[in-house]
Amino acid sequence: MTIKDNLNYILQITDSVTTRTCAVRLKPEDVSLPWELLLERYLKSPPIDELLENKRITPESARSLSAIQDLTYVSDDDGRLHDLFPGTNVKQGDQTLATGMPPEVGFGRAGEIEVDVIDLTLDRWNVGYSRNLVGFKKRRWVKDEPAYLEFIRASVERDHGVSDTDAILELESAKDRLTLLRSVSERIWEADFESYSRFTGQKLIFKTGDETVLNIIAGGGGICSEKVQALKFLTDNLGYESEYLLAGPNAEKPLPEEKLRELLTTFEFDFSKRYMRYWEHLALLYHLDGSDIVVDATNGNIPFIFLAGPDVDKMLNCQDKVPVSVRMSLNTESFYYHRVPQDIPENLLYALEGWIPEADLIEVFENELGLYISERFFVMPLVYKNRKEFLDLERQYKIACKKVGLDCAIEEEWHLNSEIGQRFANEHPFASRQIIASEEHLLFRYNESEGQDHKAGVVVVDLKS
Fold first, then answer.
1. Which of 174, 184, 226, 419 could form a disulfide with 222 if both were Cys (CB 3.0 to 4.6 A apart)?
2. Are the C-beta atoms of 354 and 71 separated by less than 8 Å?
3. pTM of the model
4. Could you tell me the maximum CA-CA distance found in the chain, to the nearest angstrom?
């Protein structure tokens, strides 16, 4: 391959499932390398600090590269990366690159600058559930350890003051360990129950535990499956033992384990709602100093749950379960909690992160979580193509809200100018700004999935009216 007199060679790497993309400027001598060496040098073992210092990669692209690493390479328990996951194909366009093959160089632009681009796509559809969670969490912890430790410290300080926090953080007694767990859990519970961050900032379709913690630090939050991972991520790295619980509305019967495993293999979710309700919600069961403690730190109008002793047995026993009464948005439902073999929730979360490309839209629209839920407000996007569709949706929301005695404001355009919308914006200024900012990418994602030329309005429901 002839190397032209051009210093603007860009390697762009895209994960086919999550659509995460990173870009790094190459050296001219890199251009003739086979794809294996390019990925070895710039994806598996890149000199990130040097690349950032020399402005060959942006901070945003560096963070995306880090996430793609963990989706692409097998790691050991110490977090060291090894080979590509078996079943991974590297493509340019529709062509799978053969072993030892140098990629083609294409033409592109970065602003006003002409660049030569090597565009590689990582096709992971045949990989399966093979991530080493121990190594994955260790890698993620090391990357932002000071931020996580400060979040934990701030959570404890808020409840117990500066003078007692140092002693609590030593975790030398059962009381200290319980105190820290409760403080961190409450801090995560209080963070926004939201999906606006799927369409702003990094625009992550689904956040891992570490990404959710960082999003909470930045002022945002997550939904139940993200917040529960955030708490488990932090406490796992502090040495706590916990397991995921599955829960769902009216899911009183025994957990259909094999059917849920089948769904995570086939992804044939049509006509499966009677099974999928069992994983509509997640919580954690801690095994701490000889006691079992159920912690639900997710919110979304699910009360903060921190149960021990006989109350745990009442919630989780196989017969005569005691449910939790929940009204997340319009309707009150009874949520039943279940212990579960851990491969099911772990694979579910991995699927949401790395296998279901429309997970963001599913959570907002199909699961009806909208963009924001609090004790007072529910904010839902209203997507339509023409005025007739809008009026039909408006009528449906008015009927649903009137049926349960709630006030709502339905806007044909993307703003919060109604009386209810202004109350929401005044009480939650950060969330309201993020919701307004989410319109462009939400419509882009919706049009990408459902066809072009959609418009968007906003529904704000006053849950306390």
1. 226
2. yes
3. 0.92
4. 75
